[in-house]
Amino acid sequence: MTVDAVVVGAGHNGLVAANLLADAGWDVVVCEAADTPGGAVASAEVTAPGFRTDLFSAFYPLAVASPVLNALDLGSYGVSWARAPAVLAHLLPDGRSATLWQDPAQTAASLAKFGAADGEAWLRITAQWDRIGDAVVQALLSPFPPVAAVGRLLRRLGVDELLRLARMAAQPVRRFGEENFAGPGGPILFAGNALHADLPPDGAGSALYGWLLAMLGHSYGFPVPVGGADVLIKGLVRRLEAKGGQLRLSARVDKIVVSSGAARAVVLQSGERIDARRAVLADVAAPALFDKLVGIDDLPRRFVADLRHFQWDAPTVKIDWAVGAPVPWTDPDARKAGTVHLGVDMDGLTDYAADLSTRRIPRAPFVLFGQMTTADPTRSPAGTESAWAYTHLPRGVDFTADDIARHVEKVEAVVEAHAPGFRAAVLARHVQAPADLQRRDANLVDGAINGGTAQLHQQLVFRPVPGLGNAVTPVDRLYLAGSSAHPGGGVHGAPGANAAHAALARERVTGGARHAFQAALLRRIYRDGALAGLDSQDSSANR
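Predicted structure:
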């Protein structure tokens, strides 16, 4: 079998890439190892009959904001969105709460309870976002450098404001909160959002991610697909098949064939070979792609050495519940929020991050709690709640079943403290430990859900290793299309789109010259030099 392009992996990024290539008239086949598509965008009834659970990701502000997904017009393929009345409530240990609403005046009123001027600070921050938000999203999701989007920002802000925006992006989120708010309400909204990735409150760049998610919540809410996360995948598959693309399930790729420095074919576990006339795009975690599917013999030694330092994000434990009644929060705003943060304040977030960094199971976990029926009433019977929570565990620790059970008990105790009677209302529970997450999706290595750390040293031109900040790899016609590539994790489709655009650019009249230039840069980046770590058996890629 010969096609124009083979896409390895039918996660949302792989399906986005395949759709864009099919739009360009390419003959595309997507090979997925599992018996269902979607990767970490999946739904099932795992707690009780009639309760739909999103098994991995659940709320999708980046998807609704993404120009990539918006251009695919998935509404025409069965995808619609629902939102909870409130976006997010952060419940503090002292009983107070800060609540993010789409109405900026409501959020401002919530924050003004903590400091007289804090409501005005929120309005000032959201007013700036309203001027530049679309350009910011474009800049963050584009291949590096995002010249056009930065130009738009410069025209709208001027040099003075753009410099200050850049300073904010580099700040720790704790410092951003201190500079903008008098009380703890505003800072904790931003810091809690930063911890949706593995960005500690005192880490450089955490302000940018916390600000981005908070502002997306302001603009779009935290939307969910009506009916379940898998509806988004079904829409992508329907669109792909309507455009002539093929999806093959239970078709594990065992090898990418490289000849004369270029990707030429894939070989399935069954032994079948599928030749690719133009490109192979891989929605696969970078270490697995290069170590297992390509093999280090076809890669520059310096690149392999860099790959040994790839850092995963923290393991995740996720608990799903079928709740026989609305969650009995004592805070009225939490009853209306799709997402609830609880367990810690700002200092508690720092302690939690420090525990993860020092390989201690957190003594006081930061809990992210999702109320799916509050956001989308189709998720469970009337008068009930399909709920979940997740928190992180340290990497490099072997967890026993008792460790996981104790941590689940700790999480439920945190919820019970803010919602007395919660445990009594639970009809059924389903737990996914880090190893369970990886069994369901091999890309979630040890329960890492972000495709690698989102910290600054592994973003932009450093993702997945020092390089060009785009989908191009040292192997010609092989493109990294998963969340290990810039711009990283989240459901927005950008890694897949960037890979598709790179493959299409390779075929244009200027493609040969473009490839020669990029290849020359890569040869400079990966020329043999100090190769410390190349032969290390205990590499940080596994930590």
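Summary: The radius of gyration is 23 Å.
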